[in-house]
Write a structure and sequence with these properties.
Layout (H helix, E strand, L loop, with lengths): L3 E4 L8 H18 L6 H12 L9 H10 L4 H18 L6 H10 L3 E5 L4 H10 L8 E3 L1 H4 L6 H11 L6 E5 L2 H10 L3 E5 L17 E3 L5 H4 L1
Length: about 220
């Protein structure tokens, strides 16, 4: 009998990859229109190469990109990128299909809902609020709270401390087997792989096994 459901944020509740793809392409196009001498495909590929190692969380990504691309920070180009990104991000940061309806049904069952994410605290809350999901959740554990990234046990144990229930009564839903599922398995939570959000290729012999796999968010209702 489950008493709580915890979720990863990006690529589990929100289509983070789609948001980053659209915003980065818009920013590249804006820089080119402002005078960057590169093709769109070339510039986008370089931006992703610089961005990916940070797990797409870097407040200075466009400065780093410009240093790589042209050897310096051109503030005309920088401002064009930032304005383009900010203009479009709220339009494309949306939940996966079925998320609000499913969360409503989970809440109606009396389940405690929480988020465990590696995102910085304010960014995580802004994303939830932008997507109109913040009121569904009773608490959130962020990188700022745990100081450790998944799959380290600390963020999961902090969530259990907040819940004050057994790990075996807690369902954890995440898209990344080696980060989300591994850490939750290690503290004894019952794990669900959100396969619809998994985008990084992982070798079969490196995959952490979840208890359940879902291809659509609403399939959670069959589990609980």
């Amino acid at each position: 009998m489950f008493r709580a459901v915890l979720f990863d944020l990006d690529n589990t509740l929100l289509d983070f990859v789609k948001m980053k793809t659209v915003c980065c392409k818009a920013s590249v196009k804006a820089m080119i229109e402002a005078g960057l001498k590169m093709g769109e495909d070339e510039a986008y590929k370089l931006l992703i190469e610089v961005y990916a190692p940070t797990l797409y969380e870097d407040d200075h990504i466009f400065e780093k990109f410009l240093k790589k691309a042209i050897g310096k920070i051109d503030y005309k180009l920088l401002s064009a990128a930032i304005v383009a990104y900010r203009r479009i991000v709220n339009e494309v940061l949306i939940p996966y299909e079925g998320v609000p309806e499913t969360l409503t049904k989970l809440k109606s069952k009396g389940l405690i809902l929480g988020v465990v994410t590696d995102a910085p605290r304010i960014k995580a809350w802004i994303r939830l609020t932008t997507a109109k999901l913040s009121n569904y959740f009773d608490f959130m554990i962020t990188l700022g709270d745990s100081k450790k990234r998944k799959p380290h046990k600390t963020p999961y144990n902090k969530a259990l401390k907040e819940l004050k229930i057994k790990s075996s009564e807690t369902l954890f839903v995440g898209d990344n087997p080696q980060r989300d599922i591994k850490g939750a398995n290690e503290v004894g939570m019952i794990t669900v792989l959100a396969k619809y959000g998994t985008f990084l290729p992982i070798k079969d012999d490196e995959k952490e096994k979840p208890k359940y796999v879902i291809n659509k968010f609403e399939e959670l209702l069959k589990i609980v």
